[in-house]
Amino acid sequence: MLRAEYSQAAAAVAGSLELIERQRWLAFLPWPQALRAELDLLAGDIDTAADRLERAWALACQLDDPCWEGMTARGLGLLNVARGDHESATSWLAEAAARSNRVPDRYQWVHGFVLDALITTTLDADDEVRAAPLVTTLGALAARGQMRELVVRAHLHRHRLGDSTALAAARLLAVDVDNPALGDLLGGVRPAGQRA
To answer: How far apart are CA 158 and CA 164, in angstroms?
Structure first.
């Protein structure tokens, strides 16, 4: 999905869902459900995405797993972006950030992935004041965790906030990142306040 290779992502998610069902590993179900729902959103199927996300959210909360909760709350945030409800989207994405960060031994990538979505949504709503500290948090988290693609994304957000050196830094850091979708982002980045 990160590479915008959606048919391959759909096949991988379908295989994961099938394996979970076959092995009855319900504790792992929210993760691929959230990913499947995001693919539904990308395909414009908001109702199916909403149904999947509601079920994934309920199970993630029942399992009390911060990663699953963060991923499903992120999905619910993106669902509200698709519905045009910025207030609910921001609320769900903030909830996702809090949930994915609530225990010390969490999976750091999920927190960074959630922060990236929250920052994007916040900048798209021209809320630079709220976005700026989130970008700092994402940049520090990604650098500490050696998550280069998220470091690049943090620089892209800094560029949108008006940092004139950030785009060059993002391009330099992205050279060895094998992700064609990231290359598309590097070419199409726009400052906050400019509509696509």
So the answer is: 9
What pLDDT is attached to residue 192? 54
- The reply to whether 53 and 119 lie within a common domain is no
Report d(CA 97, CA 99) in Å as an integer.
Answer: 6
Q: What total of structural domains would you count in the chain? A: 2
Query: Does residue 123 sit in the same domain as residue 79?
Result: no
Asked whether residue 49 falls in the same domain as residue 113, the answer is no
In a domain, 124, yes or no: yes
Inside any domain, residue 146? yes
Burial class of residue 124 in the structure, from the number of CB atoms within 10 Å of its CB (0-12 exposed, 13-18 middle, 19+ buried): middle
Cβ neighbourhood burial of 193 (10 Å; 0-12, 13-18, 19+): exposed
The rounded radius of gyration (Å) of the Cα atoms in the chain is 16
pLDDT at site 92: 98
In a domain, 123, yes or no: yes
The CA-based angle 108-53-133, given to 5 degrees, is 40
Structural domain containing residue 147: 107-196
For residue range 87-98, list pLDDT tens digits in order.
Answer: 999 999 999 999
Q: With CA atoms as reference, report the closest residue to 55 among 39, 40, 76.
A: 76
In degrees, rounded to 5, the angle at the alpha carbon of residue 150 between the alpha carbons of residues 123 and 154 is 40
Q: Please name the residues in contact with 181: beta carbons below 8 A apart, sequence gap of 6 or more.
A: 2, 3, 4
